[in-house]
UniProtKB/TrEMBL annotation:
The keyword Iron does not apply. Residues 338-571 form the ABC transporter domain. SUPFAM superfamilies: ABC transporter transmembrane region, P-loop containing nucleoside triphosphate hydrolases. It is found in: Cell membrane. Residues 19-303 form the ABC transmembrane type-1 domain. Keywords: ATP-binding, Membrane, Nucleotide-binding, Transmembrane, Transmembrane helix. The chain crosses the membrane at residues 17-39, 51-72, 160-179, 247-268, 280-298. The keyword Iron does not apply. It comes from Lactiplantibacillus songbeiensis. Gene3D superfamilies: ABC transporter type 1, transmembrane domain, P-loop containing nucleotide triphosphate hydrolases. This is ABC transporter ATP-binding protein. One of its GO terms (molecular function) is ATP binding.
Amino acid sequence: MSIFLKLGWYFRREWKLYLAGVIGLILTAIIGIVPPRIIGNVVDGIDQHTLTARSLTVYLVIIAAAAIGQYLTRYLWRNAIWGGAAGLERTLRERLFWHFMKMDATFYQTYRTGDLMAHATNDLTAIERVAGGGILQFADSIITGGTTLIAMMMLIDWRLTIIAVVPFPLLAVVSWYLGQKIHVAFRASQAAFSRLNNKAQESISGIKVIKALGQEKADVKDFNQQIDQTIKINRRVNILDSLFDPAITFIIAVSYAATIVLGGLYVTHHVITIGNLVSFITYLGMMVWPMFAVGMLFNTMERGNASYDRVMDLLNQKSAIVDQKHGLAQRPTGDIDYQVKQFNYPNDAGTSLRNVQFQLKAGQTLGIVGRVGAGKSTVMKLILREFDNYDGQISYGGHDIKSYALDNFLPAIGYVPQDSFLFSNTIRENIRFADPTVSQATVEAVAAKSDLSDQIAGMTEGYDTQVGEEGISLSGGQRQRLAIARALLINPELLILDDALSAVDAETEAEILANLKAERADKTTIIAAHRLSSVMNADEIIVLDAGEVVERGTHAELMQQHGWYAKMFTRQQLETKVEGAVQ
Ligand SMILES: Nc1ncnc2c1ncn2[C@@H]1O[C@H](COP(=O)(O)OP(=O)(O)OP(=O)(O)O)[C@@H](O)[C@H]1O
């Protein structure tokens, strides 16, 4: 029953719809009493030779009117209750999707995509069933069952009714007992489905790697094991499910047997007429569905309850990134002051950044270099507010970045990581993703700055070329350039290129960087790169090692320090020369 309380907020919101549904159900139940009673009268009329053509016609008209009445009332409740269920599904889907949009990087590190998809599909369906089928089963078992019972008692015989309902409490006990077990089993089954979903999602996304490493068989074996495990867990739900129906059938059979024995005795002793007994047995037949409804209701509620708890577990997860209620509503501009004393990734004991400090005037360029895993991306992630749990302060335009409203802060930053996500859409739509209303001329201008125009011109479909899922039909370099064009479209105050030109050749990279310098004279840029020539023109370069700044200065200053930068730069220059000579 608790799921109805948990969904109380929705039923209160949609009370008019549900009231209409319940009224429809009550009317359907009341009208449903009429035909069996009429049939009983007809039987008595035949038995007592009192049935006339006129009374038969009246009976037929009443039955026809009852049928038409039920047609209308059924239409009323179906529309109302199924409409209500669809509304709940919509509300929960929207809420969950919005929640996904707001959650932080830690959330996505904790939950896997397949798991989240399972919550958004199977679990929401189970909850929706409570507001549709569940309400119907609840109302049916109480309204139809109750009305029929009253009719049996008032219109036929109360003693016979009591005998017929003696086995009913057994149904409540069985339903309650199995319902409890189903709750636990169904939660486990949904969790198993999540794992399976996740496995399928990961295997499909990673199919190229699986094939390249010849792991198809091993992966199929792993998948089969997960299927077996899921089926094993589901089997328990099925067993519990299949215990319901026979229990109900058994209880009904006992009721019928008792009714026929006692009813037969009453007829022979003239306590009730044969017509009454026929009506009574028809009413008892009408009790079958409400009794099944009781069983199904427990089942629906427990499934809905288990799924509701799972979805609520997700919705109750709070993002660690707090968007200030009355955050600064302005676009960040001006100088950046980065002062991070220490940063550890959540759930990671190691320190990822220590004493990283730099100041960047509006329009300047900062280069960040260092070996693999030195902390270059981490420096950027803190500016992008992926994590807020650092010791220190990062200011933009004189204000702590945490004091800006996220909706104003993030759109001012153009972030291009090494592997940008592209949507399965056309090149044009990917470029103007941040503003689908911009003109073709604007799209072409940013494509030109990213040195992508010639490449697009060479494609048969040009800007209408579909890039495929995650941009699969483009080369690595084309994907990177498209991502840069997409970031440039918003003319960001701060452009962050996180190894975003690693897949293009040095010459093209130099061209793109020159374009950016010319176009973005008053805008700030941060470039992290492994190829040191990418940052040699920066106003300041910092060299990171194990999360700490070990060298800093301009290119010329760093070359004079004869440290990691100077050594690396010389080596890379030599490699370029050797490559050039070989070609
Ligand atoms: N989400 C995360 N959770 C825990 N640790 C992380 C996370 N992301 C990165 N790290 C760790 O933080 C350290 C710095 O990683 P980061 O990605 O900043 O390095 P990087 O210098 O950008 O490396 P690369 O040159 O390979 O891109 C690494 O040791 C990495 O394992």
